Structure of E3 ubiquitin-protein ligase RNF123:
Amino acid sequence: MSSKGGGSTALTRRNYRLASDTDKPKVTGLVNEKLLSDYLHHVFPASHLPRPPLASLRKPLGFQDLGAHLERLLTEGEPTEDTRDQPVDGCLGPLTVVLDHTSGFEGLLFVDDDLLGVIGHSNFSSIRATTCVYRGKWAYEVLISSQGLMQIGWCTLNCRFNQEEGVGDTPDSYAYDGNRVRKWNVTTTNYGKSWAAGDIVSCLIDLDEGTITFCLNGQSLGTAFSNIKMGPGVAYFPAISLSFKESVAFNFGSRPLRYPVEGYLPLQNPPTADLLRAHKLLGYIKTVLSTTLDTQVLEKDSACWSLHGEPTTLVTLAHIFNYFAPLMIHYLRLTTAILRHEKSRKYLLSNVLYPFIVVFFYIKTPLRVKEAGLEELIPTTWWPTRFDKEGKESKDESAEERLRRRAYERGCQRLKKRIEVVEELQVQILKLMLNNKDKGTGEASRYIFLNKFRKFLQENASNRGVRDVTPQPLCPPEYMVCFLHRLITAVRSYWDEGKMRNPGCVSSDEAYVPPQLFYNGKVDYFDLQRLGGLLSHLKKTLKDDLASKANILMDPAEIQATSMDDLDEEEESGSAQRPFGAVAMGGALARPSWLSSPTLGRANRFLSTAAVSLMTPRRPLAPPEKVKVRTLAVEQRTEEDIEGSHGNDGLLLGRPLEEPDHPITEKSLLEILDGIVMMYNLSVHQQLGKMVVVSDDVHEYAVALKDTEEKIARCPARRPDILEELQKSQKVFAEKLNHLSRRLAWINATIYCKDKMLDVYWLLRVCILTIQHADNTGTLFAFAPEFYLNVAMNSYSSLKNYFSPSNCMDQLPGYEDTLTQLAAILAKHFADPRIVGTDIKDSLMQALASYVCYPQSLRAVERIPEEQRVSMMRNLLAPYEQRPWAQTNWILVRLWRGCGFGYRYTRLPHLLKTKPEDTNLPSLQKPCPSLLLQRHMAELLSLDKDMAASFLNSVLNQLNWAFSEFIGMIQEIQQAAERPERNFVDTRQLKVCATCFDLSVSLLRVLEMTVTLVPQIFLDWTRPSAELLLRRLAQLLNQVLNRVTAERNLFDRVVNLRLPGLESVDHYPILVAVTGILVRILVDCERQGVSRAASVLLSDPCFQLHSIQHLLGEGETSPAAAVLPQTPAVHPGDPAAAPAERKHFSLHAYTDYIHEEEEQKVEQMLAFLTIESKQAAASTPTSEEDLCPICYAHSISAVFKPCSHKSCKACINQHLMNNKDCFFCKATITGVEDYSKKPTAS
């Protein structure tokens, strides 16, 4: 916690000159040595003496020996070695608990210098601690740095692990796995919740009761194991097994546990000596502050002395801060006062505060309400007590509930005002650090802060770099959230001050990051992914565009140097690895912690090696002169490199022609703004999502309490035992809600309040404007970092999902325009060829899919310019084989939902009685079709015949695949269910099966949409491929109908099992989608089209009339058909057991979902097909010689040229889509002509 007094951070006499007796103190403002000695003895009195000695008898004390004197004072009273090493009852091993890097590990591991952090570097590595416990109740914590495969818990000394079996896979070892959400002790079962990076897992063991429990972020996950092995010779070590590149950090008690549990002790005692030192240091600081410069102190010998000049106080404080810096974060007013002094501020920024800077701005969320004083601030608690059928909060409330809610809100306001005082102090500290006018003593504070800030971002961003061998630990995301909001407030304040001084600048409301920062090499992005790929690749492929648009020249030799440097990177990373014999040793390969001395990692390869030729972005009429400028690493930059001077634009070198030539703001603020966006992307958004859990918990407990109260009201008087249990539950729920409602008030005041919402909204606006400016540069848009698009999407998501309903998005200034601008970005860039990253493309597609699910955002899509809307629809209709098609299909379905046959539901009919997991999911929103976008789709498909054929062929191909996969999977599920022994179907297989079913339904809906909007694609046979498309459509519809409607079929049996995970699989969604297509082509079209559709449908060999009859419940009338048999594979008592009887499916049963007019159309279609099928059966059969030799289903209707072989048109057209060779002779087909020979009767 502390450093030695004589360390490198102590200030020397040369820094602050101290005068001798011959100097003139009153004139120069300096002190002589005697007065200085008296002052230092006054501040640092010898505590071991019963009374302070006379000044004449004291040993002189000066700054030269103050370090040693202070060290002696701090070590007085520390525990001796004998008292320090006394064993703790129930615990064996060293008192300082660390990871056993000498013998207690298996596999390849990287261990930190402090022996508390570990990274897996092999398939499945294991390591245990140096201390074990055998009696009592003990706890330790683990910070999850990566959310991959890990098993954390306890093991005995006898456990033997290998590369396949770790903690929990052997007897006497017990583990929790938050990645797979399971607990492990030889066997495994479901347990707990899923963890994420930044979470803290508490591992508790009770060796009095024989239980092991785990907690996630202070919330108990319940008892994981009971009756564990205990007795003589049995002791348990903390242990972990983790896979490749997963990392964690342990806390055995060297620091206070983040989430202590009453009754459980940490394995390591608190650092008593450090706490004693901290108490003494606080006393010294208090003495310094109370001894002002004009105070006179009288000794017994009547010697009088006075203090003159600030240097004496500052140097004294500097010595104290060498020990006290980690504790300054708890004394914000003291910190503010010290930072107001220019030299102290710069000294602390340069040498002491980093990397503690982030901790200054953290306001910890209390887990213990009493300790935080929330009961006094919020004496009255409140939570919702009225809910509708779907579990949503009802706005109706009684007068008593209204008074209670208002009292709770007043308490929340009191809390908010208290917190605002702390936040204002934090902003003041940050504004002092961002001062750029204090240049009298060297570099301004802002530029010191900026360099430290970029190093902080680099250390945290490197954890996500694909090239890193050893990922870095993350700064806790809760710290990041607070730091981000204070930084936004301070930056906007300075930004607007600059706007007042220079009215030509941009206001903070219109702030953005200019695009030249992304490609001129002045800002290091730490190898983060660009939209167009790797930076070195972009510099080579876009060098001509850089020269023509930004006046940046890349020399061939520099490009070669960059390429060679990239090739050498793997060799460097390989040579940096420690020797095999030291892989588990601390110290040989330490990764810098966010709370340790910063280690500047590998700089961006291009920035550190390539010389970039930049031109001053002034554009005279004469040809511009190129000036070569070599880019500098972060620590080498000066103020001039950032702000520029004498025609040098600094960070803004290389302004493209499309970028307006006017000042934006101070250039250092632009780089800080860029860092704010990066910081949000690193972990702030993730933390915003995590804190919503508290609100969800309040809702769940409120529902449970309401349900319990209703049960108490209905409990019969003859069952007092049940009534007693219900009342106990009621008390537990009420106590929990009292605690959670106060904690939620704290979270709403610090994270989800209106001003924090405005910060996130401002960040969204910054990203939108930045993307727009970068997009205007054309091909140079590829240089923009991916995280700008990510933050634009994620910040909108947080505004919509995390801040509501406490703060409404509609009240944000300019909200509709912002929605429209974001919609234009999503619509344009989800298929932008300049973006090459698969992950960012998928994110854009998913964001657009979510965007069209909500009425307000869908209307924003409709407000973008028509040209962009048409372009978006054209991209959505591109062949599915060229890109991920599931999300594209989902978007089209959402545009249609509400217009299709029986397609006006929010939830499927058979799921109405079940409670949805999250009613805010996009899939559970009410239908909001877009007639405007449907019209654009119809126009595109109607005018572009080639695109229409290509699109529909891809849809039919994907439907064929999805439905075939679904049928294959339900066959496997049925076979598993029919085995006599009890089998568990893999949940992943069930999920994939349900996904294939949902995809099949959505693809059918897209076909229904296409048939409705542009029926001529199938029915106008003058269009190329129209007949083929209609035959393929009929074939697939018949296959789906036959599989789903056949009696005692596979589909019925699996649906009746009602397996968890297959809830969406039911007759209604798929049969109604097929019915919608059939009704459109057989009823709603003009006569010629109906005739062609009926002819093709009836001529398909798979057509069965009873499949159509099944839709109206008019299938076979045998007793066996009336009732489906119980599936014998389901065991008695199984909750998934099928009912003994089940009625036929019939559209008539869904009157709330299907209109009467739609039912009449189905009856009309059935009557029409019945007549047509009878006429087809009575017609003269075709001779076998005249049937197509490929499919034997249709008459020969085409002859190939030049070989003259024959087939039906459907077969040859489908064949020619992929192959130009003849079926029979393999000759290249040059043409296809109609075959006009009349078929002969057999």
In short: The mean pLDDT is 78. The chain has 39 helices and 25 strands. The two ends are 100 Å apart (CA to CA). The longest helix spans residues 667-714.
